[in-house]
Amino acid sequence: MYIVAFVFLPAWRKRHDAGKGLYARSQDDNKLSVNYALRHLNCKVKWNEDQGDLVARYDYQGGHFNIRLEKDSPYIRICYLYFMEVELRYLELVRTVANLCNLNAETARIVYNVNDETGMVGAHVVCVVTVTDSTVVEVLERAMDDTFKWRQIFMARFNETKDNNDKAEDHDMEKAQATLGHELALLREQEMAHQEAGDDWHQEQGEDTRLARLVEKAMGLKDVVPIRLAVFADDGTTTLDEADDILNYDITHPLIKDGAFRRLSATARLDFYDPADPVKVRHLTMDFEQEGTTADTLYYRITLSLAAASVACGMEPSDRNAPRRQASVLLGYDLTPCEERMKRFRYLCKEAEAKARSGHEDDMSDEEQLLCGECWYDDRWLAYNGKLLFDQSRFYEAASLFEELYRKEALDNTGSKREREDKHRKTCFWLAACHAGLRQYEKAIYYIQQTEPFDNTLSMELYVNCLVNKGDHRALDIIDNVLHALREAEDLRENDNDARHKFTDEQVEHLYHFLLRRRVYLLVTMRRFEEAERLLKQMLNDPQNSDFALKELAYIQRNKTRQTEG
């Protein structure tokens, strides 16, 4: 009976499937075919069900494979998972090598994932194929052989370029975002270890966060004299009339209670006198909204809006000293117990210090290098936490940490002059980036000018963005000067007197196109439409700028139409 099944059943199915279309094959059809092929290849298979999909796990020539049969799909997905794992610092290299391999592979595709908990990048080979009973053995065998081939090619190419990648400057934003998840625990350990290091804006269960600090940092309103605070929520209204109670009001209270969100949103109104203009009562509206939840953090956003004062009160809208009209800040409320954070933090510190003492700096992970990057423990804490909060778009909290580090560095005389200047420039860059994220462009420009922005492409782009977004009169001249220098300096690398010789060709090209787009934006804002159109038409042929050019041309056309109709 078994002989009949093995010999005649495949022959019958071959005739049976001869006239069937691709999408006529069911999940059960593919399972029968896969079982037959794996038996032919001497593979022992174990089937499981995963949310309606069938998953087969088996070994082939020493490799651990699985096959996924999706419901209502004729395709077979062959996966060779985690053939390599590397640290997060190699994320950019993994992606680059995977893209090169995928351009040349037939059906195999190399993909990767990031594990935030372990801080590792895993590489996998995936093949998606279709089979019939007459081709299933050949297709599966060819796909798995291709998997081994591309695994070897990937690993060989990765190892060839790994050393050069270690020496290259990294500007990979995906890597920065991925690193954030792994380093989040370390952030909280350091905050708990240094409560006396200044304003940190780290919040945990039971820790008070004062309204006075929010109003000062986000809106630039110092020493306000509060009159009344009203908080409006779905379960009623809370009113405070005492000045001290208002200034010390916990801004987590409208949304968070006992370590959990208790409502989606709330609104508050603060009535106060501004000492800078104590003529009339001012009104500040605050909108509290949930932004998401993780196992470690409750994220929420506060949007503040200051009602305009009348001209009769002496508060002209163009007054340089006037407070901001609007601000929006993202905040986090940490839930991880102190003991867990401290245990993790101490372990990482010991690992970093041990590697530093033994001369194994090249083996350090990014977080270990950062822990050893500052001379003083408090400075190390401030820099690391500030960067991590910035990556989370928690610019308001990050700025407080970098401001404290900025003040400490001004009094620091340790190390060489070059080392102090490098640390100062890094701190100023992140301070500028935080204030730019908060749209406080004057402060951002103040800090970014201390970084010698024309010696670094990232600093230059941040500087230009701040000038353009603020509407600074210097913006167009600075953009034109840099563009002129880039056009003339074809031998940037050969000219040692030019600081830009440190830029790679890719950085120069990226900067050039960035400046073109910023120049067009300024021209359109200044309503110099004809100049902008000429430049945009040239940019249409450039893949990097074509989408931008089309949108700006459409915007210009709409404005011209309105002018004609008006």
Uncertain ranges: 1-9, 167-202, 204-208, 312-321
Helix content: 40-55%
CATH structural class of the largest domain: Alpha Beta
Major beta sheet, strand line-up: 7-15-14-13-12-8-9
The assigned CATH architecture of the largest domain is 2-Layer Sandwich
In whole angstroms, how far apart are the ends? Answer: 89 Å
Q: Tell me about the biggest sheet?
A: 7 strands, mixed
Query: How many DSSP helices?
Result: 18
What is the fold-level CATH name, i.e. the topology of the largest domain? Yope Regulator, Chain: A
The best one-word shape is globular
Please tell me the total number of domains.
Answer: 3
Q: Which structural category fits the helices and strands?
A: alpha+beta
Beta-strand content: 15-25%
Number of strands: 15
Return the average pLDDT rounded to an integer.
Answer: 78
C-alpha Rg, in Å?
30 Å
Write the layout of secondary structure elements.
Blueprint lengths: L1 H16 L9 H14 L5 E5 L2 E8 L2 E7 L6 E12 L3 H14 L3 E8 L4 E10 L6 H32 L5 H21 L9 E2 L6 H9 L5 E9 L2 E5 L2 H5 L8 E2 L2 E2 L3 E10 L2 E17 L3 E10 L19 E9 L3 H20 L8 H7 L4 H15 L3 H16 L6 H21 L3 H8 L8 H14 L4 H14 L16 H21 L3 H11 L6 H20 L1
Parallel strand pairs: 7-15
Antiparallel strand pairs: 1-2, 2-3, 3-4, 4-6, 5-6, 8-9, 8-12, 10-11, 12-13, 13-14, 14-15
Helix pairs in contact: 2-4, 3-4, 5-8, 5-10, 8-9, 9-10, 10-11, 10-12, 11-12, 12-13, 13-14, 14-16, 15-16, 16-17, 16-18, 17-18
Q: Overview of this structure, please?
A:
There is one protein chain. By secondary structure, the chain is of the alpha+beta class. It has 3 domains: 2-168, Yope Regulator, Chain: A (2-Layer Sandwich); 206-334; 452-566, no CATH class. Helices cover 49% and strands 20% of the residues. It has a 7-stranded mixed sheet. Strands 1-2-3-4-6-5 form a 6-stranded antiparallel sheet. A hairpin with a 2-residue loop joins strand 2 (53-60) and strand 3 (63-69). Helix 5 packs across helix 10 (377-391). The longest helix is centred in the first third of the chain and has 32 residues, at 136-167.
